Amino acid sequence: MVDHAQRLADRVWQRYDRKERLIRYAVLLATLMVVFWAVRDIDIFWPWVWDAPNQISNLGARMWPPSAAGLSGILNALLETVHIATLATFLTIFLALPVAYIAAQNTTPNRACLWLGRFILVSSRSVNTIIWALLFVAIFGPGVLAGILAIVFRSIGFIGKLMGEAIEEIDRRPVEAMEATGASKAKVVAYAIVPQVMPAFFAIVVLRWDINIRESTVLGLVGAGGIGVILQGAIDTFAWPTVATILIAIIVLVLLGEAITSLLRSKVL
Length: 269
Prior knowledge:
Blueprint: H1 2-10, H2 18-41, H3 46-63, H4 71-103, H5 111-126, H6 129-140, H7 144-168, H8 172-180, H9 185-216, H10 227-236, H11 240-268
Helix pairs in contact: 4-5, 4-7, 4-9, 4-10, 4-11, 5-7, 6-7, 7-9, 8-9, 9-11, 10-11
Transmembrane segments: 21-39, 82-104, 130-153, 188-209, 216-235, 241-264
Subcellular location: Cell membrane
InterPro entries: MetI-like, MetI-like_sf, PhnE/PtxC
């Protein structure tokens, strides 16, 4: 009896039993093997990696101090970047809301529309903004139009998916009450669905506008307008002080966008 009590006292509590620990170790080993295989397969030139700190130091020395030359052009490009993000967000609203409506299970007219809406949302989110920009630059040529359309086609998936989820989470009782009175479909949407999703709508649009500002800063690298065009030109001509000025301007723009969106969301929510 004493020996049994002593054995119970000597037991140490463990979160996982022996089988679970072996499974966890096997998963960890498999993960490490996959990571090792991936690193070997991408063929990294390691001398460049080890020399990266020196290169960063040299590049920083060439960038400092930032150059004020062409500051007016940089500011105009920043304004163009904001215009791209704002116009793209505005256009996305008119395209994404119908898609969100047919992609929500409780408002879609039929299964075909449901899968069509979800296909559009998945297709939009599957392609990166830069890829969309490259496509539209090839179609419309370099310029702001390609950048706006690239952000629009990328933003449809974001706004449409979140708005579709917001529509699916609405309270069905106001909808059923209006349908019971014989209200038309348009009135049901306007008076029973829209009021419930308006807070989510404003929050999603403001958030997407903030994201679009960030994304529009790099579209110029592929010729789709904005501050990225000047940045690419400065890099190509090794004008590193100008590159530093542009990078600082982009950081300031992103911070201002973050502050504005935080203020707007606090007012809405």
